[in-house]
Structures are given as structure tokens and as C-alpha cells.
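Lecture 7 notes: from sequence to structure.

We start with a single chain of 321 residues. Read the sequence below before looking at the structure.
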Amino acid sequence: MRAPLFWSGEAKGRDAVHMLQLALAPVSWVYAAAAAGRRRWTVPTRAAAPVICVGNLTLGGAGKTPVARAVRAVLGAGAHVLLRGYGGREKGPLNVAADADFRDVGDEALLHARDGPTWIARDRVAGAKAAIAAGARVIVMDDGFQNPTLVKDLALVVVDARAGVGNRKVFPAGPLRERLADGLARADAFVLMGEGEAPDWAAATGKPLLRAHLAPLAAPPAGPLIAFAGIARPEKFFDGLRGAGGEIAEAIPYTDHHPFDEGELRWLATLAAERGATLVATEKDCARLAPAWRGRITAFKVAAHFEDEAALAALLAKAVR
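Now the structure, written as C-alpha cells:
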């Protein structure tokens, strides 16, 4: 889905939008109450290894996966990633092969599997147990901050500096996955992604705030580009590509986790040929391409870079101890 404009608060002055928010408010109350009730009545399980959770407060687009990959890199050998496998057919626990079909395990799991041992499991406790049995010394959860079944030794909450928490309302009236106060109370530290002022609500908690940004691993292809992205905030990809010197002839957004079919890819290839341009997409989008197309589309790869790497290492070391 694409986030509606009123989630950001930018359209709050329009009467129709205001009425829509009011109409959605009761559903938001039910959603928030259900999330709080699940946490209240669930007895979390402590795994036999430390659990580092990289999550967020809102629906998608904050940068959890790049941060989780960076966290695993700091922790080194023995760190296994655990995630739900959103969009995949497998329920797990399953050790993800780097060449697995994204329709089975989800696109994010394939990115992690390229870095090291990765597990998908709808049941996070079962997934953690499987990873530990296979030699995991520490579990890095990509998402799952709102999942109460596992005890988190460190909960890192990722926040997009530009989007923040939007209009501060719970889904579907806003982008929040739970009441803001509930999420802030459980977070151990915040990772602010991108350029922007630190939000007042994060500073008020007194908890550590780390700054990070996405940096390209290589320069974009030279010449005109047809850029497309099926992620939560495609504009972040387009802005990053331009910021790295990319010459975008056409920017085409799709919905998050969009499965590209043959017809769409042929249309994109025709458009690129007409413009004399190169097709470029995110690494996550390229994980959802059929094998025959992967060599025809350039993946613009980025990584999360922390301004204070020592502060991140100290937080992780404390949690692992």
C-alpha cells in the first residue's frame, strides 16, 4: 500500500481529510487496544542467546533492514538474523538460502541471507530456538518490536528523520503500529535515519539517540536512468539516487513489496530503450526479479552508516554481555 497523505499531517486542513480521520479513529482505537492487549497477556520467552531487535514505530519505510544488516556486521560471526519472512509462503522456522525464491521467504530475507545465517519464522520463539541450535550466539531481529513473544535484550527503534511518526495516530488513522507512549516506553535506544532534527518525543525519553544515514556502496550508472522502486517510500530511493549523482530520466513508484510481472518488466525495458537509459532499482526490488531479468537491471546498493560507530558498538556489547 501507499501511505495516504494525511498520515504525514500535511493534509490536515482539508475538511474531507479531517472527516476521514475522525471516521477511522474508532478502528485505530481497536487496533491499538488489540496490540496492547496482546503484550499484556503474552508471557515472553527468554532465548538462550541475546536478542537484539531492530524495529520501528510506524508502518514501513524507516530503514530497519539496512540498520539490522549494519548491526549484524558489528556483531560479526555467530550473529544470526531472524525475521518473519513477510510476503513469503513459508512459515518456518527455515534457514534461508541466498538463492531461495522470494515468493517463499520474502525479499528482505534474501538480502540478509547474502550476509550470513538467516532464519524466517512466523513463530519467533521457534525461530530463535532453531537458530541457536544451529550455532547462533546472538539473534538479530529485523522487525518484531511489536511482537511480545521474545524477550529483547536491546530494542533499537529506527525513525525516519523526515517522516518521523507522521500525525501521531495509530493505523489506519495514521502510520503508528501502536500508541506512541507504549512504543517509547519499551524502546532502549533510537536510530534516526537521514537528515533532520531529532524529534522532541525521542529527546524527552532521555534514551540514547544514534544518527545514521544510507550511503551508496558504488556510484550509480552513468547516463540517463529509468528508476523504479516498490518500497514503502520510493521517493527516498529516488532522492538518494539523485544525491549520488544519478541522472533520472523517469522515476516510477510501485507499492511496497510489489511483485514485478513479465509485462511490467518488458514495459520498463521498452521505456529504457526509447530513452537510451539504464534500468535501476533498489537491491530489495532486484531480489523480487525473475532470474532472467536480474542481469538486465542494475541494483543501486546502499548501506546504513552510523555517525558514532563506537556508540552503537557499546550498546551492542552491553546487550550481548
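The two ends are 40 Å apart (CA to CA). Keep this in mind for problem set 3.
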